[in-house]
């Protein structure tokens, strides 16, 4: 992974210059957004570098993991589109990739033959079981700069932000 320090330095310098030109700019919020995006991008690149040798990208893997973690290992493409934040055409591509690899199967739902059901296969479960453990140490290392308490606080704050900016959540009803 390339160094993020020059990017962080440039980010602060750029925001400082813009703040001088537009004093009303919400500097703190702009810094937070840019830092979140910069960090998320770096984490995603590192994660995808682990998936690439297996012929997967993040959206393929997230879809497979949603099936792996679901109660019965199945979901409709529509449900997966919502959870994976994908368009139907990309979900079709994802399903094709995963089915071709034998990681999922597609069938018609018993209650409605028009509805397609995607189900993780035993091979898909074995694949996830082998793929995940080697990914844990780099993930843990990414957050090693935080204490346990800081990680919990960071998680709580990110969740609070996610729910606050979600238009589907009524933040006025929160305690």
Give a quick precis of the structure.
The protein has 175 residues and is mostly helical. Helix content is 65%, strand content 7%. The protein contains seven helices and three strands.
Describe this protein's structure.
Helix content is 65%, strand content 7%. By secondary structure, it is mostly helical. It contains 7 helices and 3 strands, in the order αααβααββαα. The longest helix has 25 residues, at 27-51. The radius of gyration is 20 Å and the shape is elongated. A hairpin with a 7-residue loop joins β2 (104-108) and β3. The model has no long low-confidence stretch (mean pLDDT 91). It has helices at 5-21, 27-51, 58-69, 77-84, 88-100, 122-142, 148-165, and strands spanning 74-75, 104-108, 116-120.
List the helices and strands and how they pair.
Blueprint (H helix, E strand, L loop, with lengths): L4 H17 L5 H25 L6 H12 L4 E2 L1 H8 L3 H13 L3 E5 L7 E5 L1 H21 L5 H18 L10
Antiparallel strand pairs: 1-3, 2-3
């Amino acid at each position: 992974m390339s160094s993020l320090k020059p990017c962080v330095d440039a980010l602060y310098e750029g925001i400082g210059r813009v703040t001088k030109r537009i004093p009303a700019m919400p500097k703190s919020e702009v810094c937070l957004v840019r830092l979140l995006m910069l960090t998320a991008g770096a984490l995603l690149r590192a994660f995808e570098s682990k998936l690439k040798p297996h012929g997967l990208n993040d959206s393929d893997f997230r879809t497979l993991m949603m099936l792996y973690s679901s109660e019965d290992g199945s979901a409709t493409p529509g449900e997966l589109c919502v959870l994976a934040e994908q368009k139907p055409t990309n979900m079709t591509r994802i399903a094709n990739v995963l089915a071709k690899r034998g990681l999922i199967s597609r069938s018609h739902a018993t209650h409605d033959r028009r509805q397609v059901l995607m189900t993780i296969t035993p091979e898909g479960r074995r694949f996830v079981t082998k793929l995940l453990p080697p990914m844990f140490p780099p993930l843990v290392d990414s957050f090693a700069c935080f204490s346990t308490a800081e990680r919990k606080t960071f998680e709580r704050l990110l969740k609070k932000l996610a729910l606050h900016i979600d238009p589907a959540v009524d933040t006025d009803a929160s305690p």
